[in-house]
UniProtKB/TrEMBL annotation, chains A, B, C:
Coiled coil: none annotated. This is DUF4432 domain-containing protein. The lineage of its organism: Bacteria, Pseudomonadati, Thermodesulfobacteriota, Desulfovibrionia, Desulfovibrionales. Pfam families: DUF4432. The keyword Nucleotide-binding does not apply. InterPro entries: DUF4432, GH-type_carb-bd. It comes from Solidesulfovibrio fructosivorans JJ]. GO terms for molecular function: carbohydrate binding.
Length: 403, 403, 403
């Protein structure tokens, strides 16, 4: 029964995008539009045929968040915050009294004007990293690398690119799905003309946050791209005994250090001093719909998060277990992508760097389903099991590459 | 006859600078002045003795152009946009329905706060490059180089320096020439105290945009400087069969790749996939007035642009032919300078790095004459011929340096 | 007699911090507070039981100071300017018609958004350096160095970090001491969770600017820190024949170039072309109160500045003599710190890199006493003598490290 409900809701979630909508342009470089403070609600729009909701944009001030912007969507089920000035990243989701996201030592929403991605040998990205979901791409991703004498800094630039256009579109028809669209440009003369229309959809009445991004190569040349949807969760889901459910086809350790965690990849330690991070490279099965479901749940199994992604678009999955101390950043990453986290030169050698033809586009679809009851967790867990279908994961003991 | 007219106009263009003017201070770090939106017109000033004009300042928003500013001058003949926050660069000129400038994959006017000039091994400048004219200097210019273990990023910093003072001065007397002056500071403790007062003059009734910059070395030491006035034009002037007219004294290819284009240096291909760029180093003759005229014209010769520069101030000329595809950036550069585009260490070895004594100043003068009729093109073409005076260019087949 | 007065005043200066105060929150990233223009005065607060004072915050515009902020405190004795957007650095102090600070070729208060600390091989900091006091730390300090393949740029990042919280607290009780507090965060995932509450106190009626900073390691790991309070003075104190009085225990040249200046370390040349800088490493005695007093005075000894610091917190002192030409930056630095100015890897090898345990804090206390009469200079000079107590400094002729 529950599965059916979820399926119906998922369909709603998809269908809503197509409905007629009224558009609110909050940022537009072409028309020189930028609205610093803005709000709209079901009430202000005169909607009486569905649940209450609101969408609010705020400009942030002080420290390194001076000039950052934040959009918050509130529905009866969800509160979702995203950051137009940081690649439309999702800062956090709240649902049923639970916060989905994590606590980084970086506690401000850093304006990219204050970032230097190339510092610390290409680790500058860590100065701003605190989001529930960061787009790591699209020109490159992964650990810092060098190609042709040029540094490719950690996880690319999209997540530190302020959106050129931001549009909130709200469906005219109930249930009045809310779409927040943002245009992220990675344009460099001679190097890149990659533009991504990101879209985040929340439908009042549905406990789902849906991402539908379309990357387009606007150049006249084939262009490489890489993307990792770096999706991160800490307490309260993450705890000693928390578990991640993945329909694994094949799993291997990212590096030698992760070898010793391979047997226990599915369970989590509590905050552990000196743990740092263990990373696993995973190929997962997809269901008949082509989507791979993943569930991260707390020990008791009474809350968690489901991450679903289109496995044709995002063929590999990085599992990042950073169960170090709370103040160090106790967090795990469920990271569907086209690449693992190796530097681009390694990903290229191993054949995972994708290419887009001139004018071609590629969509990426990911969904986040906050699970706030034991039933919801169990329901999604069954979907993972159904996709795994009892098949035994292939466990490869040796890392596929030296970092 | 036409030559006479042009000559008279040129004189007017020069003389106007000296007239009494009313000054509008739009930016002044000393007085803490910054006016985000501003406009003035012949009408608002009560001028009835000359053509209509307006000058408008706008602050730009969204994406990486958040906080950029733009000043637009409109006269009966011209619309000129310049960018105070990017070294007072000229973004574009419009005249007679023709746009003079080019279309870069970088389609925003990037605030330098979002630039990292040192990225991609010193090619970060390409993240913002889309102007009709960029000042490439003054501390250094050219391709990225290293001296004493320090990276000198592509084309220096002036073009990514926000102006410290911006003054619009409008002559009291008809024809009410409009001067936009901007102060660009390249000040670094121990390294540089180079300040440049840039001045762009447009005279209502005259189809000329005049640049008169004065670089001053405010330090107590001799200081090196380099400058290239990187002036760039794409469609509609640039097309298959377009031609550039230069009174060449000597021409050589910048590198081995350009060797094969040497014979055809004067004509242009249409947008050509895989062409990338060919660059030629040119020494040109100057007329009796000391100025070198250059004409770039379309195939039919019914429109084009004339670039004139004081050859004593700017002794060398780089011709940059980047006739790659339209979306890659189909563009050619007419680039008078003190240096070619080699890294500074090469320019130094070859004796082209200039020096300014303590307190000394150096002026640079460049003019842009949009040519919107066949007569105008022919008139200026004759001036180029007159300077060349039938002398045969010396063609050197071998690049003067390895890049 | 004079010493007693100064001592009493110093006590007042310390005690004031504890009084009940009214707080004005000017910046707060948590509450999204940022007040661009603000002022308060004894009069506006209804204080009639003490001297007049005012505190004003201004936002700066134009050039690279766009978005910088400045707080100015005015009392009968002092005018103090500090820069919240640049690590709460002190820009200048004025007292008795004398300016305490210096004149750098960098004449704007640069917004860190326009800085690239890693440029010029890690010397980017020089693009913004013009303050009377810059905090050089806390993650690292000193000349650019490399550890584990990562560049540590000149003098760290605190001085180019915009404050996350800024609070002006004014004591309810006369003499209504004014405290400007600012929170500087150096937070990088995996690397640093160092937060510093800076506090600058000025008490109306007292000619003293007191710094009391508390650095806290918010991580769960021991973290290294380094700090240099880079305190800089030029004309009119600095002049030919000016003198610095330090109760030196041991002094050595920073490098080979400084060897030839060792004998004359205590006196200054006038502006001297080609001098560049000589740097001396000093261990100084502290008085019974644990503080080391230093006096810099002009030739006549009728004005100067006293710098006092807690020698247990800041065990070493760098004396930076940069008596080059006026326009090059004629300046001397009195720089108490935990480290000398060698790169971190050298400081580490020599045992001067400090460490903070998880959750631990470390205070740093420095005072600036403008001396505007011969009596004041003489009074403080006696305090230096008293601490030196006639002991002969140990002069070490050889630098302790190769840079």
């Amino acid at each position: 029964m529950k599965k059916t409900v979820l399926f119906v809701l998922a369909c709603l979630c998809l269908a809503a995008t197509q409905a007629l909508a009224r558009d609110f342009v909050l940022t537009d470089t072409t028309g020189n539009v930028s609205i610093p403070e803005w709000t709209v609600s079901a009430k202000s729009l005169g909607f009486t045929d569905g649940p209450a909701f609101s969408v609010t944009k705020t400009t942030l001030h002080g420290g390194k968040q001076e000039g950052s912007t934040r959009i918050t969507i509130v529905t009866p089920e969800l509160e979702v915050s995203l950051i137009p000035t940081r690649g439309m990243d999702i800062y956090e989701i709240k649902s049923g009294g639970i916060r989905f996201g994590w606590k980084s030592p970086v506690d401000e929403i850093v304006n990219p004007a204050f970032m230097n991605l190339e510092m610390r040998g290409g680790l500058g990205w860590l100065d701003g990293f605190n989001e529930m979901m960061v787009r790591c791409g699209y020109e490159w991703t992964g650990h810092p690398g060098q190609e042709q004498g040029r540094l490719m800094s950690l996880h690319g630039r999209a997540g530190n690119t302020p959106a050129s256009k931001v549009v909130v579109a709200i469906d005219d028809k109930a249930p009045h799905a809310i779409h927040v669209k943002g245009l992220i440009k990675e344009n460099t003369f001679k190097f890149a003309a990659l533009e991504t229309w990101t879209e985040l959809t929340v439908t009042p009445g549905v406990k789902c946050v849906k991402i539908h991004d379309v990357l387009t190569n606007n150049s006249d040349y084939d262009r490489d791209y890489q993307i990792i949807y770096h999706s991160n969760f800490g307490v309260p889901i993450l705890e000693a005994g928390a578990k991640v459910l993945i329909p694994v086809q094949e799993i291997s350790p990212f590096n030698d250090y992760a070898k010793k965690g391979l047997a226990d990849w599915q369970t989590y330690l509590g905050p552990t001093k000196g743990y740092d991070e263990m990373v696993f490279n995973i190929r997962a099965y997809a269901g008949k719909d082509g989507w791979t479901p993943v569930v991260l749940r707390n020990k008791a199994g009474d809350h968690g998060i489901a991450v679903r992604y289109d496995a044709a678009e995002l063929p590999v999955l990085t599992l990042w277990k950073n169960t170090d101390t709370l103040r160090q950043g106790y967090v795990t990453g469920i990271e569907p992508g086209t690449s693992y986290a190796y530097p681009r030169q390694i990903e290229r050698k191993q054949g995972r760097v994708k290419s887009l033809a001139p004018g071609a586009s590629q969509a990426f679809d990911v969904e986040y389903w906050p699970l706030t009851t034991g039933d919801e967790v169990a329901g999604f867990a069954k979907r993972v099991e159904a996709v795994a279908a009892g098949r035994t994961p292939k466990v490869v003991a040796v890392p596929m590459a030296k970092e």
